[in-house]
Structures are given as structure tokens and as C-alpha cells.
Amino acid sequence: MSLLSIQGLGSGYGGDVICHDISLVVEPREIVCVLGRNGVGKTTLLRTILGKVALQAGSIEFDGRDIGHLASDKIAHRGIGYVPQGRQLFGKLSVRDNLRLGSVARAGRLEEPDEAILDYFPVLRERLGQTAETLSGGEQQMVAIARVLQAKPKLLLCDEPSEGLQPSIIDDVGRVLRAVAKDLGAAILLVEQNIRLAKSTASRGYVIEGGTVVSAGSIDEITSEEMLHQHVAFSRMRATRDENGPR
Ligand SMILES: Nc1ncnc2c1ncn2[C@@H]1O[C@H](COP(=O)(O)OP(=O)(O)OP(=O)(O)O)[C@@H](O)[C@H]1O
Ligand SMILES: [Mg+2]
User: Fold this and answer.
1) Domain map (residue ranges) of the chain
2) N or C: lower Cβ tally within 10 Å for the chain?
3) Could you report the per-residue pLDDT of 58-113, keeping only the tens digit for each?
């Protein structure tokens, strides 16, 4: 049985349909990527799974149960965690307090940061007393990931964690995501435009264009030159190639 199974999902804002007829699955412990240009509906898809945007068509099953019309706090409680685009930390709060907020989805109250999870984020352990706004972009992304792990989710929805980060820091994010899936046993649905991060973490994925899936397959299939040229921002593809040196 798949961990997440979406059939014919439709959603949008007011009368505007953004996502339509999206079907996808995520198996336990799997990292699956969703690729697509700016504005194609990637964040809207994640927010629909989370119950923050109303499901207008189709179905969403998680862990064998229908979650399509549940309130977002109930969905979080079932075990879906969200690492939002742009991190969305509480900048004036300490790293420790940001992490404590992550436990609320599971425990219903603030708990101290989990030591076993902090082991994966040694830099954060040194920064627990600092306010989140004093951290670098990469460190803030690590807080956003560590925060959601406090609730021990079975599935993480990660929205463009590479955004605004340098290549070496993006590699650190990739290492953490792989460890989350392998050691902590959480599956990850990773929305990305950074092909290098997608390839280093996901085994397969989906390409979205105009609010629907236009391609699905192995990571190599969906990141072929032709596919990237057609459906994923060319400038980013070139930037990724430059990082890898001349071909
Ligand atoms: N709260 C909202 N109300 C109305 N329209 C919205 C809202 N959020 C997003 N949209 C519109 O929905 C469409 C898809 O946006 P969405 O944020 O899902 O795209 P995206 O693929 O995540 O883009 P990006 O790569 O830039 O993050 C866009 O046309 C956007 O303007
Ligand atoms: Mg987005």
C-alpha cells in the first residue's frame, strides 16, 4: 500500500482552478520529486495535500485513509510535515523555540528539541540560543527541516529547500534529506527546480506544467535534456550545469 496516493486532484483559489487531474503516489521511505517552472502550481499542490487549500476534485489517501477533506491540523497530526517555501521561521524567536514549535503537531504541546534529531544538525546545536534571524540562509533551512522532524512525520512535504542557497549548502540539504529518509524512515515529496538536488536525492518523480502532471518516471527519464528544455526553467538547468563544470 502506498503511503500517499493522490487520484485526479483538483484545487485552486476562488473560481480559479490551478491544479487539475493530478495523480501521484509516494511509497514509504521514498524520496519523490516534483519538478516544474515558476507558477505551475507546485506549492498549491502541497498546500492542497496539507488541507490548506480546499480539494475540489479527486481524492487524497494517506496511510490507508482518506484525508481529502480533513482540517490541516488533523492532517499534520496523522503524520504529514511541511517544510514551507521560504522557510517561514519565527525570526525573533530562538532556534530552540522554533524547534519546540515543531512538536505541537504531534504532541499538542511544546517539547524540548529531540536530541536524536539534533544529531543530524550539529551546527544548530551550537546555535540553539540564537534568534533564527541571525542564522545564514542554509542554517535557517536546516531549522525548517529540523523543526518539522520534531513531530516525527511519516511524510515530509519540502517546498524548494534549495531556494536562495549556494551549491555547497544545497549539497548539505541533500545529505540531510537522504538521512531523513534512510535513518528516520520518513518519505519525502520534494518540490524542486534545482535539478542537481533532485537527482542526488530522488529516485523518481513527476513534472508539472500548467497545473497538471505532464511526465512521470525515473529521475533520469524526467531530467533528460529534452524534458528539462521543455518543462523546467532553462536558466536554472544551465546554472546547474555550470556548477558541475564544463561538459
Ligand atoms: N493565495 C493565492 N490566491 C490566488 N492565487 C494564488 C495564490 N497562491 C498562488 N496563486 C496562483 O496560483 C498559481 C500557482 O502558484 P504556486 O505558488 O502554486 O506555483 P509554484 O509552482 O509553487 O511557483 P514557484 O515555483 O514560483 O514557487 C500562480 O498563478 C499563482 O499566482
Ligand atoms: Mg512554490
Assistant:
1) 4-231
2) C
3) 999 999 999 999 999 999 999 999 999 989 999 999 999 999 999 887 778 888 88
Per-residue pLDDT of 137-152, as tens digits, reads: 999 999 999 999 999 9
> Which ligand has its closest atom nearest to the C-alpha of 208?
1
State how far the alpha carbon of 150 is from the alpha carbons of 39, 161, 168, 177, 226, in Å: 30, 18, 25, 15, 40
Task: Give domain 4-231's CATH architecture.
Answer: 3-Layer(aba) Sandwich (3.40)
Is there an atom of ligand 1 within 6 Å of 13 CB?
yes
Any atom of ligand 1 within 6 Å of the Cβ of 40: yes
**Is 208 close to ligand 1, i.e. is its CB under 6 Å away?**
no
- For residue 132, what are the CA distances in angstroms to 115, 172, 186? 19, 19, 25
Q: Please give the Cα distance from 157 to 148 (Å, whole number).
A: 10
Ligand with the closest atom to the CA of 42: 1
43 in ligand 1 pocket by Cβ < 6 Å? yes
